[in-house]
Amino acid sequence: MKDKCIKAVTEAAGRALSAVELKDIEDRIARNRRQLARNDRDAYLTMTPDQQLREAAKLASDEFVADALKDKQRVALTIEKHSKIDTYLQQQKQLHGMNDIESLNRVLAVFSDGKSFNSKSAITESVESRSQAISSDYIRQLHDAFAALSPKYIGLFQNKASTNALIRGLFGEDINGLVDPKMAAEIKGAVEAWNEVIELARTHFNNAGGKIGKIEDWRMPQSHSQLKIATAGQEGWVKDMMGWYNHKKYMNEDGSYMSAEKVQSILSASWKTLATNGANKMEPGKRNARILANEYSKRRIIHFKDADSYIAYQQKYGNTDTYTAMMKQIQSLSADLATVEIFGPNSDQTFRYFLDKAYKEQSIADPVNEGSIKAQMGKAQSLYDYITGKTQPVANWKIAQGFDTLRNWKVATQLGTSYVASTVDNATMHLTAQVNGMSSMRMMRNQLSTLNLANRSELQMARRAGLSLQTLIGEMNRWGAENLGASFSNKMANLTIRASLLNAATEARRRAFGVTMFGSIGEVANKYNDITLIDGADRRLLESKGVNDKIFQVWKRAQLEDWGNGNNTMLTPDAIYAIPDDILKDIGNPQVLRREAALKLLSMTHEEINMAVVEPGARTRELTKMGTQAGTLKGEIMRSFFLFKSFPLANVMKHWERAFGYEGKASKAFYLTGFFAGTTLFGAAAQQIGNIITGKDPQDMSKGKFWAGAIVKGGSGGIIGDFLFNTDASYGKSPLSALSGPIASFAEDLAGLTQGNVVQLLQGKKTNAAGEGIKFLKGNIPLQNLWYTKAATDRLIFNQLQEMVSPGYMNRVEQRARKETGQSYFYKPNEAIPHRAPDLNKAFGQ
Q1: Which of 54, 413, 449, 704 makes a 20 to 30 Å CA pair with 259?
Q2: Do the beta carbons of residue 605 and residue 541 sit within 8 Å?
Q3: What is the pTM of this model?
Q4: Is 414 helix (H, G, I), strand (E, B) or coil?
Q5: Higher pLDDT, residue 729 or 91
Q6: pLDDT for 761
Q7: Rounded distance, CA 785 to CA 792, Å?
Q8: Is the domain of 614 the same as that of 578?
C-alpha cells in the first residue's frame, strides 16, 4: 500500500494500524476491485483508476462494518450459549446427579432414558436430533421437485439424462430439446427449489452467527476426491483444469483477465490444498483452531466455465454422484447449523472449554479416578468429532478400499434373507407406540396402507412432511457398514438390500409409525388448551422431549390435516409453517416460533421412529469404530468385526437404556419384560419363516435351542446373544471366526480352501476341494440367497453341483437337520419342486 493510502486509511481509522491490519485492508480492496470487474466488466473499464479504487474501498468499508456487526453478534451469541450450557449442566446435576461430562454427551447425542431434557431445560434437544430435524425440513421441501427427476434407477445407477439436464439448468443453460417438455419443466422447478432451500439454509446459518456470503454464480457443491487429485499430480490436475476453468472469473485489479500463467499459479495452490486435505496451510507448532461459523465463508477458487466442464471434472475427480453430493451438502450444512445453534459460533472452543472444565472439577473432586475421568473425556471428544464431521482422514486407501469391498460383498452375499429377520421391527414398533400413548391398531392400519405399492399419494404426503426420506437420500444402512463411496461392490450391496425388500419394508414401517405419531400429537394438541392439562403419560413424554408451553401453543394453532384412512388429526411441518403471523404474534416472533415448532415436531418424531424401527445412532456408530482410523489394520478389523452387529447393539442400547430410565424396579421390569417377550416372539416367528423358506418343516418350539435362536433373531440378547447362541451362522466355523464376524469367516474359508487343502494333500489325506470350492462360491455370489428364491436356487444349482463332486451330499444335509434340530424337509434337497406342504404341527412337537 502506498504511503498516501496508508495515511488516508490511518486518519479514517483514527489510530495507528498494524502491518497486519494494513495488509488486510489492502487485500480487501484488491479483492473487491476484482469482484467489481467480474460483476460488470464493461462498466468497470469505463471508470478511472481512482474511481475503481474508491468503489472498491467503499465495498471494503462496508465489509468492515458488517464484520464488526458480525463480531458483536457472535460475542452476544457466545455469551448466550455459554450461559445456556452452564445452566443445563447445573440442572442435570440437580435433577439426576449427573456429572458434567455425561451431561455434555447428552447435548451431543440422543439418549433414550428420558433424562436428557425437560420443558424447563436451558437446552431442549441434542445436536444429533436437531441436525436430523433440520435436514429433514430442508430435504422435504426439495422432494416434489427432485423426486420427479428420478435421479437414480432403483437407487443404484445415476439417471444421466435428467441429472445432466439438472446441472445445465443450475448453470443457467437452455435445456429445451435435451429432455422432453414435461421433464424440462420439472427440472426448472427443481432448480428453483434448490436455490430457495440453499438460500434459506444460508440465512439460518448466518442468523446463528455464521458467515456465508451470497455468491451469485454458486450453482451446486463441488465434489473433490483427495485420492484422485493427489494421484493425478499437480501437473496433470492443473492441465485438466486449464481446459475447464471460467477465465471470466479470474480478473486482475485493473479489469483485465489474468494471464494463463497466473491462473496456473492459483490452480497450483488449489491443488496443494485439495491434494493434502489442507495440510499445506498448517503452521508447525501452532494449533489451528477451527471456527465452525467461518467454515462456509471461504471464497470459492475454482470456477467452471459451463456445465460440461463441471460434469467432466466430477466424472474424473469427484468422489460421489451429483445427486448424492447435493443431498450431502444439505446434511452437512444441517449438522453444522445444529452445532452452531447449540454451542455457538465457535463451537469447537466452547465444547472444549466445558469439557476441560468438567475434567478439572471432577478430577479434583475424585482424584482416585482421574484416569477413568480422562477416558470419559476422550470418549466425549470422540463423539463430538464424529457428530461434527471431524473424522480422521483415511490412513491407507488401498487397505480401506480392500476392506470396504469385502464388507460390501458380505452384505451382498449374506443379507438376502434380511427381510425375514426384520419381522422383529413389529415388536419394537408396538412397544414404542405403547410408550407414546399411540393407537397400535391405527399404526397397523397405516402399515398396511404403506405396503400398498399402488398408493403413491400417501408416500408423497409423508415425504413432503419430512418422513420416509432415508431411501430417497440413500441412507438406509441398518445392518451393513458405512462405505467409502460409490463402487461396484457398494452397488451390489444396495441391490441386494433392495431386492430382498428390506428397504421397502423398513421404510414402510418407519413411515407408518411417523404418520401415526403426527396424528397422535395433533390429537393431543387439538384436545388440550394447555400443556399442564395433558394426562400424565402424554405430558411426561412431551416434556422429556423439551416441549414447552410456547411450542405446544404453536402446535395448537395449526390447522390439522386430514390424510384419510382415519388420519384426520395430522400435525405436519407444512401445517405449522402455514399459521398466519396474526395468530402467533401474541406469543412471540412468528417466524422463529414456526421454525422451532416444526423442528421440534420433526426431532421428537424421528427420535421415536428410530426407537420403533431401530436405527443405529451416532453413539452406536462411534462405539463400533472405537476411535480407530479408517485405512489402518486396527480400524478396518474393528469395522469388520461390527459388520451386522450395529443393529443388535443399537437395539439393546436404545431399549435397555429406556427401561433403566424409568423410576422404580417395577416399571423397569415391566418395560424389559415387554421388550424381551416381544422381540423374542417375533424372533421366533422369523426363525420359523426362515425354516420354511429353506424347505424345512417348522422347528419344535418346546426345545430350548429354538428359543435361544429366537433370542438372537429378536435382538434381545444383542451382541452377547450373538456370541453365545448364533449357531446357524457359525456352523463349520472355528469359535474365533464365528465370533469375529463375516470377514473373519471369509478369511477362514479362503484359507481352508487353499492352504488347508494343500496341507491335507501333502499329508496324504483325502481332500474335498471341489465341494469346499462350491460352498465357497455359493457363499460369495450376490443375490443367490434372496429369501424368495433361495430354496429353488439351492436345489436347482448348488445342491446338484455338490452332489456331483460329493455323492451323498443331499442325504447328509437331511441327516444333519434331523440330528441337530429334529427337522424334516417338505422340500427335499434333491427335489425340483416340493413334494408336500410344510407340516405346521411340527412347531408344537407333534
Answers
A1: 54
A2: no
A3: 0.90
A4: helix
A5: 91
A6: 61
A7: 10
A8: yes
* Helix pair 322-343, 160-170: axis angle to 10 deg: 60
Q: Is residue 479 part of a domain?
A: yes
d(CA 281, CA 385): 21
**Rounded-to-integer distance, Cα 86 and Cα 410, Å:** 47
Same domain, 796 and 742: yes
Do residue 694 and residue 819 come from a single domain? yes
Quick: pLDDT tens for 787-801: 999 999 999 999 999
The pLDDT assigned to 596 comes to 97
3-class SS at 690? helix
Verify that 525 and 602 share a domain, yes or no: yes
Last residue of a domain, one of 661, 694, 722: 661
Q: How far is CA 753 from CA 443, 746, 764, 780, in A?
A: 50, 10, 16, 13
Give the integer Cα–Cα distance in Å for 109 and 615: 14
Residue 150, sorted as left (phi over 0), alpha (psi -120 to 50) or beta, turns out to be: left
Q: Which three cell numbers stand for residue 102?
A: 455425561
- Whether the per-residue pLDDT at 721 is higher than 60: the answer is no
Count of structural domains within the chain:
3
In this predicted structure, what is the pLDDT of residue 229?
95
Residue 830's contacts (CB-CB under 8 Å, 6 or more residues apart) are: 795, 799, 803, 810
AA identity, residue 15:
R
Q: Give the tens place of pLDDT for each residue, 78-122.
A: 999 999 999 999 999 999 999 999 999 999 999 999 999 998 999
Query: Are 729 and 805 part of one and the same domain?
Result: yes
Residue 479: band (very low, low, confident or very high) from pLDDT cuts 50, 70, 90: low
**Rounded to the nearest 5°, which phi and psi values hold at 257?**
-75, 145
Residue with cell 453341483: 801
Contacts of 632 (CB under 8 A, 6+ apart): 395, 396, 399
Q: Exposed, middle or buried, 419 (CB in 10 Å: 0-12/13-18/19+)?
A: buried
Give the chain's end-to-end CA distance (angstroms, integer).
97
Alpha-carbon distance of 342 to 356, in angstroms, equals 18
609: closest CA among 683, 506, 694? 506
DSSP secondary structure, 99-167, as one string: -HHHHHHHHHS--SSS-S--TT-SS-S-HHHHHHHHHHHHHHHHHHHHHTT--EETTTEE-HHHHHHHH
Choose the final residue of a domain: 635, 661, 687. Answer: 661
Please report which helix (H) or strand (E) contains residue 376, including its range. Answer: helix 370-387
* Dihedrals phi, psi of 824, to nearest 5 degrees: -115, 165
Q: Which amino acid is at 326?
A: M
What does the alpha-carbon distance between residue 606 and residue 819 come to, in Å, rounded to a whole number? 46
Report helix angle 718-725 to 646-660, nearest 10.
Answer: 130
Half-sphere exposure for 277 (CA within 13 Å, toward CB): 10
Question: Do 459 and 601 fall into the same domain?
Answer: yes
Does 804 fall in a domain?
Answer: yes
**Tens of pLDDT along 113-171?**
999 999 899 999 999 999 999 999 999 998 877 776 665 544 555 677 888 888 999 99
Whole-angstrom CA distances from 680 to 85, 556, 710, 755, 782 are: 41, 40, 5, 41, 29
Provide the grid cell at 608.
Answer: 421415536
Q: Is residue 144 part of a domain?
A: no
Cell reading at 568: 384426520
- Residues contacting residue 63 through CB under 8 Å, at least 6 positions apart: 28, 32
* Same domain (yes/no): 489, 636: yes
pLDDT digits (tens, 9 = 90+) for 182-240: 888 888 888 999 999 999 999 999 999 988 877 666 778 888 999 999 999 999 999 99
Please check whether residue 332 lies inside any domain of the structure.
no
| The residue type at 23 | K
Rounded CA gap, 646 and 631, in Å? 20
State the residue range of the domain holding 246. 224-284+303-319
Residue with cell 435397555: 656
DSSP state at residue 287: -
Residue 63: predicted pLDDT: 83
